[in-house]
């Protein structure tokens, strides 16, 4: 287990017992340290911010520091998710959604395409109580203790987790669950280097994203929405009820529909949710904590094509 793994493992143990403000301050400090060290993640974050025109070369350093603080705020909130009361969670979450979206979710399984934006764990804890039980996927990473800690955190918040094992396929499980039960299926989809990754456009730049949301929406015949999540400042009674100066806002776009089927339908729906995400990133770019390559200009496309051909 690396030093980082040990620190995270300790954080899962002790963060729920510590004051919320202390955990937030510690994570903000850790964000600044990571930003100052300027490892590969911070450098890639800056490349991504430049590609979505969130900054220019003269301002990208300042922008990446803010984005890193937003990213580590996610950890501060996730580590203490089990310590929050239902009332505190409710006070921290606001939603922008149409009556049509509410009807779709009430009527049956609904699929949400998400980006690495805001705090999807806090959103999932709220959504499982107020909308429908959340079903999602978690990549099975090492070490096992940390993976189990993240899964337990989400399951304790009412979510159902399907583990993505190396070389395995979760699509059949998602399809079965979506058809058999009433779920809010939430898929992080703004980065995918597997053999199913699809070419897309994010803020006018060629990128690779997951085919899962579009493919599952068509196969299960369930509505598809893009949901943006951002941190928002809380004031007054909302801040007192939340026990925090920060909350999140969920913004639903959709339903996204297509008359096409098969690969054409998947491509069409993918283009629609990535267009919705691009519009969202144009407004709230610093809530996107993407520290890995997603744009074609930063990828080894020959390696990606080899993966696709090997899986064909």
TrEMBL record:
One of its GO terms (cellular component) is plasma membrane. Its main location: membrane. Keywords: Acyltransferase, Cell inner membrane, Cell membrane, Membrane, Transferase. CDD domains: LPLAT_LABLAT-like. The keyword Cell inner membrane applies. It comes from the Bacteria. One of its GO terms (biological process) is glycolipid biosynthetic process. It is found in: Cell inner membrane. One of its GO terms (molecular function) is acyltransferase activity. The keyword Heme does not apply. NCBIfam families: PRK07920.1 (NF005919). This is KDO2-lipid IV(A) lauroyltransferase. The lineage of its organism: Bacteria, Bacillati, Actinomycetota, Actinomycetes, Actinomycetales.
């Amino acid at each position: 287990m690396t030093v980082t793994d040990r620190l995270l493992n300790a954080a899962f143990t002790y963060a729920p017992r510590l004051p919320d403000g202390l955990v937030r301050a510690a994570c903000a400090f850790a964000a600044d340290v990571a930003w100052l060290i300027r490892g590969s993640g911070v450098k890639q974050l800056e490349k991504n911010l430049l590609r979505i025109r969130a900054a220019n070369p003269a301002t990208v350093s300042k922008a990446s520091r803010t984005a890193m603080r937003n990213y580590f705020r996610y950890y501060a909130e996730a580590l203490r998710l089990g310590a929050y009361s239902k009332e505190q969670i409710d006070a921290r979450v606001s939603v922008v959604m149409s009556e049509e979206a509410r009807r779709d979710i009430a009527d049956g399984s609904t699929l949400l395409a998400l980006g690495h934006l805001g705090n999807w764990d806090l959103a999932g804890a709220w959504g499982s109580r107020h909308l429908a039980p959340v079903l999602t996927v978690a990549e099975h990473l090492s070490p096992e203790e940390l993976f189990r800690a993240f899964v337990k955190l989400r399951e304790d918040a009412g979510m159902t987790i399907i583990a993505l094992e190396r070389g395995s396929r979760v699509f059949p499980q998602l399809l079965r669950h979506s058809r058999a039960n009433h779920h809010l299926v939430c898929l992080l989809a703004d980065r995918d280097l597997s053999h199913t990754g699809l070419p897309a456009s994010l803020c006018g730049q060629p990128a690779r994203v997951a085919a899962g949301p579009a493919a599952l929406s068509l196969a299960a015949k369930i509505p598809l929405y893009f949901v943006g999540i951002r941190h928002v400042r809380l004031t007054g009674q909302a801040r007192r009820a939340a026990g925090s100066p920060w909350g999140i806002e969920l913004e639903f776009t959709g339903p996204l529909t297509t008359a096409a089927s098969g690969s054409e339908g998947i491509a069409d729906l993918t283009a629609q949710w990535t267009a919705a995400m691009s519009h969202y990133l144009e407004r709230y770019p610093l809530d996107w904590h993407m520290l890995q390559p997603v744009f074609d200009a930063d990828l080894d496309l020959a390696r990606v094509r080899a993966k696709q051909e090997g899986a064909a």
